[in-house]
Every structure is written in C-alpha cells, then in structure tokens.
Amino acid sequence: MNALEKIIHGIIAKQGAISLAAFMELALQHPEYGYYRVREPIGRKGDFVTAPEVSQMFGEMVGVWCAESWRGFGKPDPFALIELGPGRGTMMQDIMRATANVGGFHAAKQLYLLDSDRALRAAQEEKLGGDAPHYIDAIAALPPLPSLIVANEFFDALPVRQFEKTFRGWAEHMVTVANGELVMTQRPLEEAELVLIPAAMRDVNPGVIFEISPKAQNIMRDLAKHLAAHKGAMLIVDYGYTAASGDASVQAVSSHASVSIFERPGEVDLTAHVDFAVLGQAASAAGAEASPVITQGEFLKNLGIEIRADTLKRRVPLPQAAAIDADLHRLIDDSKMGSLFKVMEVRCG
After folding, report:
1. What is the average pLDDT value for the chain, to the nearest integer?
2. Nearest to 271 by CA among 251, 242, 256
3. What's the whole-number mean pLDDT along residues 332-339?
C-alpha cells in the first residue's frame, strides 16, 4: 500500500464510501502524491504516448489551425496563445516552428500554459527555449486578451461520476474498502438525483453505464465565457464520443498496459472518454459556438498533413521516409488514432 492509498483508506474510514470522481481527483491531483503533480507520464518510457509525441506533423497541423484562426480574427495584437495540459511541451514547440514565418504572429502572441504537472516544467521550458511561457493553474488567471486555446488529451484526464442502471433503479459507483482493499460499491440514487441522468436514458435496461464530468463541464463553461468576453477560438482533441455507448470508459494505464484503476493510486494514469456533446452544450450555454465534431483523421487531412508528410519524406533517406509514413498512418487511419480521437472547435467573435 503506497502513501496515497493509505490516505484514501483514511478518508473512507472517516466519511464512508467516496464517489469515483472523488477517487480520481485524489489519484490524479493530490498535492503531494497525485499522478499529475509528481509523475512524468508521457513517452515510451512513461505510461502513454500522445499524438504530438508520435510525430511533429501533429503539432505542425495544430500550428496551421492557430495561424488560420488568428488571421480569421483580424490578427489581434496582442493575443494569448494558451495550451491546457501541455505535457512535455512537444506540441507547443511544433506550433512555434510551424508559425515562425507567419508575419506578426510571434510578435503578437503571449504564451500561457495551464498545467498542474510541475515535474514536466523543465522539459517544457527546454523545448520552448526563448518562448518563455507564463504558467497558470486556473482558468480565472487567463489574461483579458483575444485567445487561441489548444487542448490535446486534456479533458479525458478530468474526473467523472459513474452511474449504473440496476434492477432496483439507478445507482452511483462509489469507492470503499473491503478486506483491506479498495473496491467498487454502489449507492442508490435518491429521487431528486435522477435529474443527473438524461431523460432518454432513464428507462434503459439494467447494466447500462452513464458517466458525467461536472469538472469538465465547469471548465468548458469558464473557457467559453472567456472567449465570449475577449473573442477567440479553442481546439479540443481527445478520445471520446457524441452519443453515450452505455459502457464504462474509466481506465487505468501503467507502462502502456491496462491495469486496475485501484492499482497504486497516484502512480498510474486514469482517464475517461470525453462526452463532446455535453462539452458543446456547455460552450453554447456560455455564449460561444461549438463546431460539429469530426475525427482526428479528418481534421489533420483537411489541414494538409498528407502534403506535409510528402515534403518531409523528400528530405530524408528511405528508412526515415518509411517511418514518416508509419507515423502518418498512426495519426490518421481509422484503425489507429484517426477515428478514436475526435476534434471540436469552439469560437466566439
């Protein structure tokens, strides 16, 4: 039992079972032992690999999106370029390179990174070099400027509440202790709590799962309010859905392999699929406009990633060209990341 697991056991001993969302929040964000406070999770030696780590082409296409969006808003000067959950800084480094020759872009931008993983800051600063970022830890700290916001695999790391339709009605999945181990249990919902379940799902068959992330909705609402107040656009890339499947999506990964969500809390990655429909509704309610959701493959191809791959291949020997093709396939093919990951834009102004 590690230090964080002992803390969670103590909390449950005092107050009883906690929600899955509360468990995820502790495992990921505990100030001393949380996964995103102390770990360096990204890369082949970490627990997972993100699209920017697969190939520079991903970040370069996001850079193209940034440049086109900036021009579309009339080239505001100054403007804030913001990344949520920037990892090791790889994507922002590629964005900076892709926009280096966009006249006025770099001179006008002020760079902000919203990140709770202090263990990655040295890597971010090394990659960004002269583009020293401003670090912030809350949406409320964003500057009152027109903003371009990018979020790749940010919302999937936010805690979710998880509900299941049982033969006795709807219940929430909770975390408790049994025989000295963390285990899942259930808490029947009160009548007043049924408003949490969409009306279309209330009469489904037993065994159906429904997940919501109040934290994700609140963050999306705050970001949309920021865009509505100051103008700008946001790009969200994540794995998720626009219609709930009825299955549980919370998962844990350690060293690129699936593990129990209760294994070594704070030392393994916990994620859940993103409900893009709900995020879009939250953005609209706050005064911004959410685009239709498309796949990552469509998004990257629309911006010209295949042309970029051909350009890169012409500059390198055959073995490296084959590697570029393999990376491209991984990013855009439906059997890989191409359809699993979705893209949504949020704009205002």
Report:
1. 94
2. 251
3. 96
Q: What tokens appear for 283 in the block?
A: 């953005």
| Phi–psi pair at 198, nearest 5 degrees | -55, 140
Largest CA distance in the chain: 66
Domain locations in the chain as residue ranges:
299-341
Tell me the C-alpha distance between 343 and 108, whole Å: 26
Helix 20-29 and helix 214-230, axial crossing angle in degrees, nearest 10: 70
Q: Could you check whether the bond before residue 86 is cis, i.e. omega within 30 degrees of 0?
A: no
pLDDT tens, position by position, 52-96: 999 999 999 999 999 999 999 999 999 999 999 998 899 999 999
Spatial CB neighbours of 212, under 8 Å, sequence gap ≥ 6: 160, 161, 163, 196, 275, 278
What is the rounded distance in angstroms from the CA atom of residue 135 to the CA atom of residue 285? Answer: 28
Q: Are 346 and 228 in contact (CB under 8 A)?
A: no
Q: Are 163 and 224 in contact (CB under 8 A)?
A: no
SS3 21: helix
Say whether pTM exceeds 0.85.
yes
For 12-36, how does the pLDDT look when each residue is reduced to its tens digit (9 = 90+)? Answer: 999 999 999 999 999 999 999 999 8
Q: Are strands 109-114 and 134-136 parallel, antiparallel or unpaired?
A: parallel
**Which residue is associated with the tokens 């990204």?**
42
